[in-house]
Amino acid sequence: MSESLATEEPQAGPVSVPVNGPGQQSPSLAGRAAALDAEDELAGLRELFTLDDNTVYLDGNSLGALPRHVPERLQDVITRQWGELRIRSWTEGGWWTAPERIGDRIAPLVGAGPGRIVVGDSTSVNVFKAVVAAVRLAEAADPARDEILVDATTFPTDGYIARSAARMTGRRIVPVDPAELAGALGPRTAVALVNHVDFRTGRLHDLPGLTAAAHAAGALVVWDLCHSAGALPVGLDEHGVDLAVGCTYKYLNGGPGSPAFLYVAGRHQAAFDSPLPGWNSHTDPFAMAQDFAAADGAVRGRVGTPDILSMLALEAALDVWEGVRVEAVRAKSLALTDFFLECVAAYAPAGRVSSMTPAAHAERGSQVALRCAEAPAVMAELISRGVIGDLRRPDVLRFGFTPLYVGFADAERAARVLGEVLAEVPGRPAGEQGDRGV
């Protein structure tokens, strides 16, 4: 990828490119897509995934594509490790240490040092652990801190769990728009739970700035990295993040329902008090002691027996990251989403879609969300024509760009097919105050 393309900010307004009409390919855009793919340093990684040329897969922000080598690796886990070694695989196969070992492989992708991430359970369970543990940490420092600030636009489960955690810990939930979070922090704030990237719009929130603001107010922050881990640099250690959680089945391609991860900063590990102590987080699990004594380090985030099949499928999937720089992934992500928005401006009938995704690179994750009044019908037709995105009701078309396997020709084709569909589906303008027309 060229340096200029990787660093250039998008223009403030939509870009108009002449085309012959809906469904007719623009030679200039198609040519540029081919040229960009030819110079893309990550282009060869596509061959590592199970994909076909008949489909443009833009839903990796919901479920990542299957790395080709994972079935063979999992077959070995099933037939040899489980089938032949059986119980011996907990030691000889490394099953027992998998949560920490795989955590250390994820760590460089989110800017964490070794021993700070443990893999296991779902994102939801890890959000619960992190929020309650953060409240306990804050309470030890200042019992008067009785508020949990929650991103008002959060993924619903995060909100459900935060409210339950608040009831259990005697705290009060305060929903806050992320743009107003810094100003809402105060002497009563114990913890803020924030999504790094908004799941609906693709807006990237200011992790360094909000973390620093929370610390200046004497509070802690729990970050949800589900839509940023594997898509952009995070810098957990660098920016002093307290606790973080993330899923592995999106940009990390771990497979449906693959286990999530929990990050605990080194400075908090000795005092990290999980609300779900289990035998796996005991300092001596096989002593089977009735009294709980927490293990050292991030192992405290473990609970029960790991889900070995999905755990080891994830471990195999992480092989595709060997030698890949997250900075290169981010540069391509921004270039892809810039190019897609330009293609949408060229191919879509005027006024039918509007972008909810910020134009500024510093505020954009790795997806594009388009508001469209006829979104359900449009997405259904896109999928039938081989462009796989997803729908967020009632009117959001969501397209995820996974730089490891999505190319610029994919972006051009997806926008062109979107233009075809919009021209065929009767509709009305999609604009809403605050959206950027494309």
Sheet with the most strands, sense and barrel status: 7 strands, mixed
- Runs in which pLDDT lies below 50 for 5 or more consecutive residues are 1-20
Secondary structure: number of strands: 14
Mean of residue pLDDT?
Answer: 93
Strand order of the largest sheet: 2-8-7-6-5-3-4
Count up the helices: 12
Describe the structure.
- By secondary structure, this protein is α/β, with parallel strands linked by helices.
- The chain is 34% helix and 12% strand.
- It has a seven-stranded mixed sheet, sandwiched between helices. A five-stranded antiparallel sheet has the order 12-13-10-9-14.
- A hairpin with a 3-residue loop joins strand 12 and strand 13.
- Helix 3 packs antiparallel against helix 9 and helix 5 packs parallel to helix 6.
- The N terminus is likely disordered.
Salient structural properties:
438 residues, alpha/beta, globular, five-stranded antiparallel beta sheet, 12 helices
Summarize the structure.
The chain contains twelve helices and 14 strands. By secondary structure, the protein is α/β, with parallel strands linked by helices. Helix 3 runs antiparallel to helix 9, helix 4 packs parallel to helix 9 (308-317) and helix 5 (123-141) packs parallel to helix 6.
Please give the structural blueprint.
Elements: H1 3-7, H2 27-38, E1 56-57, H3 70-85, H4 98-106, E2 117-119, H5 123-141, E3 147-151, H6 156-169, E4 172-176, H7 181-184, E5 189-195, H8 207-216, E6 220-224, E7 243-246, E8 261-264, H9 308-317, H10 326-347, E9 354-355, E10 367-371, H11 375-384, E11 387-388, E12 390-392, E13 396-400, H12 408-424, E14 436-437
